[in-house]
């Protein structure tokens, strides 16, 4: 089994060499990453409007994610210091604890046709129910390629929401997220729905509240991995469970709790070329499903077995095909790192990443505090902003951390002194 110990201490070039030696990435991919040959402007210009160029962000990898008995190298795109470090730390501890297990509850996308102006909403519901098979056929005829791939429309349901009768279409979109598939199918059935019910269609569109694409990730961590000191380990576990309760009780905390989860999730969603707004929108709606916005993950302790048990459930309608996925060479590198997962496998990895990120954040919050690690990384950003050269960063970070004054003016002042002392 490949060991990734010391990977974080290497230079970017050395990390690429290691991935090449381990046959994770091809020579061609390594060359693309080494030269920063990412998205060609000509391609970018086809993807969005009024394009001027492309916009770069750090592209990193986190080894040792052990999910459902398989090891993964997970690509992260993030501008935030400490996210990759925290994920690596959590992934290692959780791997030693047996890794993550995940459950895909279902993988269907939901779209809706909103009808209004109906004389009798309940009677209209009955008519739609009777026409379900016909409506499914109509939807499938509008997008035959997904049927050929083994997917297609699966069910039609309805709900009365004030003056609207909403018709929901559930579709198996296979490896795609399915926005365009759903929208095509919905528009194809909206005319027939108007004929059936006498109502008018206000809109026909996919819903990002993907409650039929729920994924759960779980892990359980022996207390002993939380601290070398036995009694401190038990206290940390208890406090992490309390922190989880807090995120259920207080929306102000829940929002930050979930932001921490998305530090990891967004990083992988971006790296795999997926629509992160869609994933965020669905997850935040799910976090408020009972009327109060709550933490998406929960942690509890098993006192008898000295285990901390974590769990995260959220909608994860992630894709491995479609959208802009095939257009970006760095996205191709991400799929190489992940060993070409299926959409279900990728969804499992991403939810596991969210749980790992949450573990690291909660552990830091209830023990050392989040600032200890953060300030060191903040100092690094300040050093770069102050204009420190590569060899000047480490001494400047050291001085800033000792001085405990983390602002740009101080960083510039210290840098000046370092340079004067060198003369
Ligand atoms: P696409 O429109 O790109 O459709 C999926 C494509 O993937 C199809 O061309 C399909 O080919 C191809 N494909 C290849 N292999 C497979 C496979 N095994 N399973 C499924 N499809 C396969 O993407 P989506 O419909 O998924 O829509 C996603 C895009 O829509 C994203 O870019 C998103 O940002 C955007 N969007 C999002 C909205 C929202 O979230 N509310 C609204 C509107 C757009 P074939 O046709 O031959 O089957």
Automatic annotation (TrEMBL):
One of its GO terms (biological process) is coenzyme A metabolic process. The keyword Oxidoreductase applies. InterPro entries: HMG_CoA_Rdtase, HMG_CoA_Rdtase_bac-typ, HMG_CoA_Rdtase_cat_sf, HMG_CoA_Rdtase_NAD(P)-bd_sf, HMG_CoA_Rdtase_sub-bd_dom_sf. The keyword Cell membrane does not apply. It catalyses: (R)-mevalonate + 2 NAD(+) + CoA = (3S)-3-hydroxy-3-methylglutaryl-CoA + 2 NADH + 2 H(+). It comes from the Bacteria. Its EC number is 1.1.1.88. Pathway: Metabolic intermediate metabolism; (R)-mevalonate degradation; (S)-3-hydroxy-3-methylglutaryl-CoA from (R)-mevalonate: step 1/1. PROSITE patterns: HMG_COA_REDUCTASE_4. Signal peptide: none annotated. Keywords: NAD, Oxidoreductase. GO terms for molecular function: hydroxymethylglutaryl-CoA reductase (NADH) activity; hydroxymethylglutaryl-CoA reductase (NADPH) activity. Belongs to the HMG-CoA reductase family. PANTHER family: 3-HYDROXY-3-METHYLGLUTARYL-COENZYME A REDUCTASE (PTHR10572). NCBIfam families: HMG_CoA_R_NAD. This is 3-hydroxy-3-methylglutaryl coenzyme A reductase.
